[in-house]
Design goal:
Elements lengths: L1 H9 L6 H16 L6 E2 L2 E2 L1 H11 L22 H22 L6 H4 L12 H10 L3 H6 L6 H15 L7 H14 L9 E6 L4 E6 L2 E11 L8 E10 L3 E2 L2 H13 L12 H7 L3 E4 L2 E2 L16 E4 L10 E4 L8 E2 L13 E3 L3 E3 L2 H13 L3 H10 L1 E14 L3 E3 L5 E3 L6 H10 L13 E4 L9 E4 L9 H6 L2
Helix pairs in contact: 1-2, 1-4, 2-4, 2-6, 3-4, 8-9, 9-14, 12-13
């Protein structure tokens, strides 16, 4: 062990942050440990050979075997040779563990749309875990996500690379790998009961112990105002909510209209109050109502003013809002723009997700959380009110463009934000251009009180015209 410690102390500091942390952790690990993990008197142990073989199969898991430096199976048996083999394999194990857990990329650095932080294991705990395991290869396999979709994608990757069933496109392989990587960024535990918002599919699902109990269309953010990708806990269901205009909409869309107002009696420019009345908005500053016509909107900072649309038939949030507090101020809600759900491509919002049948969603959530009947929910539909959930419900806003069904058939969905190319390029270290279709292959599963369901696949192109009020302020 003295030779191992001496070699570690003499090694140059790696440039990469992850490699640097791994090496520093090994210094501490071997300072505390009285015996090697991988070497025996005459060479590598059986466990070492299992670990080397498993790391050599990294490509099967969407990683790259060439990214890992491994010791020879028959290293030099002198002290320096065995110590080098011990350190080399330990570093390879730690790198493999980091990448298997999603540490190959920093998601927000790939795109700011990804508000996700993979749960990478602490290097020392990895070394203690694999050293105490009875099977090093099984330990390494167990580091990968255990979600059913990740497991199915891993099988699909093998099929795509083998060319079985026509799945041999390099684009398909890269898309599958990009989706596998995004699964590494998901929480290990999605929650036995959770909401799953799929941006590429533009479908919201409620999942109860692995079974989809509700599925409905949603409208997601347009590419210029995309829906962020993150997980948060739903805490509130709000009936007949008011709507506070977000900062981005205030500055980018409302402010230009107000600056072009207050023309006076003989001007063709509208009054500021007329602009706000047209959108059903009330304005305050510091909680105090103000006269919009008395303000020179060219000279003020609109961010210091609050604009609220009270509940009503014109309210952009409709009847019900589902709030899961997050830094993006994104939530799910109803909308008066019902015709938007008739499209296959439904990317119209400023980032929030509009649900086609939000009252039914509320019934499903409140039946689970509070045991409420449909009649109890309908009472809130009539009178309004805010309901705090007894137990927070996880909400996962996701971006998976490839999914695999129970028969191992892969379905690809439109990459509406172009994120597959970004992820693939980051993984490859060079520009990769993957196809992005303007069409969405859309599975719609409707579940109602009668328990029936209907599935269909629809392909559509351009959206129809829609209310300019929603296009300006629809959240």
């Amino acid at each position: 062990m003295l030779a191992v410690r001496r070699q570690l102390a003499a090694r140059p500091v790696p440039r990469g942050a992850g490699d640097r942390e791994d090496q520093a952790a090994l210094v501490v690990f071997y300072a505390e440990r009285g015996r090697p993990v991988w070497i025996e008197k005459d060479g590598l142990s059986g466990q070492a050979k299992l670990a080397i073989a498993e790391i050599g199969r990294a490509d099967d898991w969407g990683l790259k075997a060439t990214a890992f430096e491994l010791p020879p199976l028959a290293p030099s048996t002198d002290a320096d040779g065995l110590s080098t083999a011990e350190i080399t394999l330990s570093l390879a194990v730690l790198k493999y563990a980091r990448q298997a857990r999603g540490g190959r990329l920093d998601p927000p650095s790939v795109s700011r749309k990804f508000d996700q932080r993979p749960r990478v294991y602490e290097p020392r705990s990895v070394m203690l875990g694999i050293a105490g395991s009875g099977s090093a290869d099984a330990y390494l396999r167990g580091l990968h996500p255990k979600h059913e979709q990740f497991v199915r994608l891993q099988r699909a990757l093998t099929t795509a690379r083998s060319g079985v069933a026509g799945e041999n496109s390099a684009q398909n392989v890269q898309r599958i790998v990009a989706n596998m990587e995004r699964w590494r960024w998901m929480p290990d535990d999605l929650g036995g009961f959770h909401v799953w918002d799929s941006i590429p599919e533009q479908i919201a699902r409620v999942v109860d112990n692995g079974k989809v109990v509700f599925a409905e269309k949603i409208v997601v953010g347009r590419p210029t105002t995309p829906t962020p990708i993150f997980s948060a806990d739903m805490l509130f269901v709000i009936f007949h909510p008011s709507w506070g205009v977000p900062t981005g909409i205030k500055t980018q869309e409302l402010w230009p209209q107000l600056r072009d107002s207050n023309g006076g009696w003989f001007s063709t420019r509208p009054l500021a109050s007329s602009v706000l009345n047209a959108h059903g908005l009330q304005v305050t500053r510091g909680g105090v109502p103000v006269d919009p016509d008395a303000i020179d909107w060219e000279k003020v900072d609109i961010r210091s003013y609050d604009f609220v649309q009270p509940p009503g038939p014109r309210n952009v949030l409709g009847i019900v809002k589902f709030r899961f507090p997050n830094k993006h101020d994104v939530y799910m809600h109803d909308t008066p723009e019902r015709h938007l759900f008739g499209n296959g491509l439904r990317a119209f919002s400023h980032g929030c997700m509009r649900v086609e049948n939000p009252v039914r969603l509320a019934e499903v959530l409140l039946a689970h959380d509070k045991g409420w009947s449909t009649a109890q929910v309908q009472d809130y539909v009539k009178r309004g009110g805010e309901i705090r959930l007894t137990t927070p419900i996880p909400v996962h806003v996701t971006y998976f463009t490839a999914t695999v069904d129970e028969n191992d058939n892969v379905r690809y969905f439109s990459d509406i934000y172009g994120l597959d190319s970004r992820v693939a390029s980051a993984l490859e270290g060079q520009p990769i251009a993957l196809r992005t279709s303007g069409m969405t292959e859309e599975p719609v599963v409707r579940t109602g009180r009668g328990g029936g369901s209907k599935s269909q696949v629809r392909r559509t192109g351009q959206p129809p015209s829609y209310n300019p009020f929603a296009s300006i302020f629809g959240n």
